[in-house]
């Protein structure tokens, strides 16, 4: 049976405000997460999972793929050395129209301004083996946009990145995790092979390549919380959840 957990990180850095804490992972904690994946031998690339769905590749048990959204410069600074040290495959989803700029889709809501990777840093990620994917051109909310607008954001971003990277770009992530059927169709028509949502859960044999699930990693995800997320495929973690989970399974068996 195929099963993979896709992890979603945003900023590998300490939070600059309480508001952005959810989207941060401290560098030392990130290193512990990656060391755990390396020791477990379960780390895969996103393309490995797609190939497994097509029966072209076998996966390790409880496979885990690492992804990053937005392309923050802090993530380049703090995450890339760790990924290289532990030989962890990863995918970085870049907002192609904001390369070298900042997170201007967040600051109007009170989030701290943060620098995004410039071209040199993106190419450095590519050269280190990180897969570069698209996160649109400007990080808009896709549902409700016209097909023409969607094509500009989704297909245009793929074109931008392929010119920059001089290679194929096949992976996409929906901004804010938001999409509708029209957006999904445009992603597929633009030539992407996978698209990631922000819905938590495992990706099994019946996973849809354009609606892949991801488990979000927060600043407070200590190692026991991290392991729990990997085991149960949930965004949230708690001391009591395993007890509740197994009690529910026991009740279900007794009711048969």
Description:
It is globular, with a radius of gyration of 18 Å. Strand 5 (63-70), helix 3 and strand 6 (90-94) form a beta-alpha-beta unit. Helices cover 38% and strands 16% of the residues. It has helices at residues 27-40, 46-53, 73-86, 119-127, 147-165, 181-189, 223-232, 241-254; strands at residues 3-9, 11-12, 24-25, 43-44, 63-70, 90-94, 131-134, 171-173, 194-196, 203-204, 215-216. Helix 1 packs parallel to helix 3 (73-86) and helix 5 (147-165) packs parallel to helix 6 (181-189). The strands form three sheets. Strands 1, 4, 5, 6, 7, 10 and 11 form a seven-stranded mixed sheet that branches. The chain has a two-stranded parallel ribbon with strand order 2-3. The chain has 256 residues and is α/β, with parallel strands linked by helices.
Count of alpha and pi helical runs: 8
Characterize the overall form. Answer: globular
Q: Roughly how many Å apart are the termini?
A: 25 Å
CATH architecture annotation = Alpha-Beta Barrel
Summarize this structure as a short list of keywords or feature phrases.
two-stranded parallel ribbon; 256 residues; alpha/beta; 7-stranded mixed β-sheet
């Amino acid at each position: 049976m195929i099963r993979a957990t896709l992890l979603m990180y945003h900023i590998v850095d300490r939070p600059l405000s309480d508001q952005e804490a959810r989207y941060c992972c401290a560098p030392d904690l990130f290193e512990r997460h990656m060391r755990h994946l390396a020791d477990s031998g379960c780390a895969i690339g996103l393309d490995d999972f797609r190939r497994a769905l097509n029966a072209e590749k076998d996966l390790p048990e409880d496979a885990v793929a690492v992804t990053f959204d937005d392309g923050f410069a802090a993530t380049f600074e703090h995450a890339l050395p760790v990924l290289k040290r532990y030989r962890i495959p990863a995918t970085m989803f870049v907002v192609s129209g904001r390369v070298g700029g900042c997170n201007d889709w967040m600051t109007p809501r009170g989030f701290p301004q943060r620098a995004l990777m410039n071209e040199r840093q993106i190419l450095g990620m590519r050269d280190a083996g990180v897969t570069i994917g698209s996160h649109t051109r400007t990080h808009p909310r896709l549902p409700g946009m016209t097909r023409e607008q969607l094509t500009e954001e989704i297909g245009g971003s793929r074109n931008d990145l392929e010119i920059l990277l001089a290679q194929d770009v096949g992976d996409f992530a929906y901004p804010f995790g938001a999409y509708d059927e029209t957006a999904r169709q445009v992603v597929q028509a633009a030539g992407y092979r996978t698209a990631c949502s922000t819905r938590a859960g495992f990706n099994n044999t019946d996973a849809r390549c354009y609606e892949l699930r991801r488990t979000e990693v927060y600043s407070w995800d200590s190692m026991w919380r991290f392991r729990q997320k990997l085991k149960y495929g949930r965004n949230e973690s708690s001391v009591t959840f395993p007890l509740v989970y197994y009690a529910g399974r026991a009740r279900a068996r007794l009711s048969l």
